[in-house]
Amino acid sequence: MAMKSFAAYQKYLKYLALPGLALVTAGLIAGIVAGWTLLPAGLLVGGIGLLLLGLVLGNQGQGRFWAQRSTEAGANALVSTLAVLAILGLVNFLAVRYASRVDLTENQIFTLAPQSQQVVQTLENPTRVVVFDPLPNPQDRQLLESYRQAGPQFTFDYVNPYNDPRQAQDFGATQTGMVFVESGDNRRFLQNVGPSERLSERTLTNALDQVVSDRALTVYFTQGHQEFTIDGSDTGFLQAATALEDKSAVVQPLDLSKTSTVPEDASVVVVAGPAAEFFEPEVKALQTYLNGGGSLMLLIDPRTSPGLDTLLDPWGITLDDRIVLDTSGSGQLVGLGPAAPLVTDFGDHPITRDFTGGRSFFPLVRPVNVEEVPGVTATPILQSNPQSRAEALSTEGELQYDENAPPSGPYTLGVALSRPVDGAAAAEGEPPPESRLVVIGNATFATDGLFEQQLNGDVFLNAVSWLGQQTDATLSIRPREVTNRRITLTVQQQIGLGVFALLVLPAIGLGLAVLMWLRRR
């Protein structure tokens, strides 16, 4: 009786092979991808058991089973299914182990800048970014994942400060959204992230570069000669100073009448738009600093005489008293007049090498004349339009010029210079020390309100980074933006489009339908 009952249910046992096959596949994939833990092993053993029950007991006593055509077809299907599943498992394994992405967006908005990739690849020690945020932002996570794929030494972690208060206290995370970067014993706060502020590639790359170089940039702005302020008390260089601090630089004012020398920790000294003359001891202090391997940026507006000729003469630089006018009309495209030349011609120099296709503008800029001097390497970094010319201002500050006069451009508006330090020997593995100088015939281009326009801020930041003799990777990284492809319609265009879609097109369709009906009759 028992044998008859078993024989009655025996034909159903063969269907156990299907869930057995599914369990075997799940166990293999889980074991390969996540590792052979207890769960994948259990799935694999259970699946093999069901397969054996289905294939052996489900057809016991049926000697003709293996000779049936249906068995052959089923075996072929089983082998094919196993092969497909094995291929899918291998593809998933390779995709997890060797992940790669292709950025097909127009502006490569999901691809790190070359400077960022260079910094990550040069990390010698394990470096970790820790974000204390219970709700990770997908955009920030994707940016960090791009960094992780760019270099093996970079990792990142998201920590929920409510679930792990001990780690939050250890880092000093007093609120959600705080981001830290650490490498060995070096740990520093990076920025806050939130709904209105996302993780910045520029900030992160510069922080990583500081980890690599282990040298902070200290920038001094001279004061006391009616230069632009950096404290926000008046329209000046507050945005520029803030941008430098975002790059982990230390920004300080410098009054040479009180110190008589440039501080030893100065990486760069910036003279931004002086309207009064420097005293002779102050000029000598700048000369001593520059000749000793220092770096100096001079931003000198027209109609000013800061008394720095004795400093500039050994470099072959003279400041023209005229202003440059761009008569090509290209400035009108962005709302600029001829007295604010639009610069699109940038020199082949680390400061401006990545500016191809960009533009900057300089309201009331004077030409910078460059003469060849032995031992001095001079590279023009800013050139006016060939359709420009230089005109003098009257003593009252009025400009009178003949619009029909022929152009005489281009003119050099900014130049970067360097020369070896006399008698200085290079340390082993280091480049020989050199003095660096950047002269631009305008300071207004980097003031508050204009700093973030076009490439104006990039010119300033890149010049400071080059002067500070930092690696090229710390130069300004321009954030990628999604191209606006939206079509803006006027009210009349919207009404016309609606009438065409709701009335004209249906009427045309109805007319064609009637015409076809009449032809068929």
TrEMBL record:
Please state every residue range assigned to the domain named DUF7088: 106-181
**Residue ranges of the TM segments:** 12-32, 38-57, 77-99, 495-518
Where does the ABC-type uncharacterised transport system domain start and stop, copy by copy?
Answer: 218-451
Q: Does the keyword Transmembrane helix apply?
A: yes
Q: Which UniProt keywords apply?
A: Membrane, Transmembrane, Transmembrane helix
**PANTHER family xref list:** INTRAFLAGELLAR TRANSPORT PROTEIN 52 HOMOLOG, NGD5/OSM-6/IFT52
Protein name stated in the entry: Gldg family protein
The source organism is Leptolyngbya subtilissima DQ-A4
Source taxonomy: Bacteria, Bacillati, Cyanobacteriota, Cyanophyceae, Leptolyngbyales
